[in-house]
Structures are given as C-alpha cells and as structure tokens.
Specification:
The protein is of the alpha+beta class. The chain has five helices and six strands, in the order H-E-H-H-E-E-E-E-H-H-E. A hairpin with a 6-residue loop joins strand 3 and strand 4.
C-alpha cells in the first residue's frame, strides 16, 4: 500500500511540476541551434552539445526518446537515451526542453533503415507498409543526440 501511495505522489509531482530534471545535471552554458547541428554534423560528432526546443513527440512505449523541434520550421532532432536510465513522460509533449548529450551518426543499411521505420511506426501506433516503403538517403543516415540530461519546463 505504501508503495502505491509513493508512486502516486511521484506521478503527481511529475505532472504538476514546473520543471523536471532527467538524467545528469546540465553543465554547458551555451546552446547550439538544431539547424547548426544538422547543417554541420561532422563538426559536432561525439562532442557534448546542448539544445533547446519544444518536445513534439515522446516514445510511448519506454519513454526512451523525445523528438525536439528545431529553430527552422518542420525540423527536429531526436534525443535518445538508454532504456530505463531516463524515462521521459508522455506529458512532456508540447513543453520546452533543454537537453544535453553527444551528437551521434547512425549509418544504416537498407534493412536496418526499414526496420527502424517499422519500429517508429509501431511506437506511434501507425500502420507500416513495408512493401511500398521507399527509402531515402536521410533514412539511412540519422543524426541524433545521445542524451545525457534534460530539463523539461
């Protein structure tokens, strides 16, 4: 019974808190625009960076990633964390976030890219037609932030 009450209190504090911290404490004093990271990714690979934006999507299954809006329209970057180490709540969607991590590049084969697109569709509860899926170069080269810490306001 006491565990249930503690869980309920934790859940309410997450829902109603003005600021939630996840993972490691933020240490960088300068943010880098998402557009800068995506325009010059090789310059930032494997280096610590801080981004800011609005959470536009959250992994509904494990809370293991958030999609953050960039400074240009329709541009986003994923902040991926190790499963279970940081769990982003669904309630983060639509809120402002400051996140830190290292930019990483995923070079995927056609098969890996197809599996990733299928997995993403499943996480969003969308249907996926593997036979009619056309892969692009951007499907096979993915830049994302390996998240270390975040503050959601």
């Amino acid at each position: 019974m006491a565990k249930h009450i503690l869980f309920f209190i934790l859940l309410l504090s997450i829902i109603f808190a003005d600021k939630n911290e996840f993972g490691q404490k933020l240490t960088l004093d300068k943010t880098t625009a998402v557009s800068t990271l995506l325009d010059q990714p090789e310059k930032y690979l494997d280096k610590p960076v801080q981004i800011t934006g609005t959470v536009v999507d959250v992994c509904a299954h494990k809370g293991c990633w958030i999609e953050v809006s960039g400074d240009r329209p329709y541009e986003t970057i994923q902040v991926k964390v190790d499963d279970g180490v940081i769990i982003f709540p669904i309630t983060a969607k639509g809120k402002n976030v400051v996140a830190e991590g290292k930019l990483e590049k995923l070079s995927l084969s056609d098969e890996q890219a197809l599996r990733m697109k299928k997995h993403q569709a499943e996480e969003k509860g969308e249907e996926f037609d593997e036979k009619n899926c056309k892969l692009t170069e951007s499907d096979k080269t993915v830049y994302r932030l390996r998240g270390l810490g975040a503050v959601i306001k």
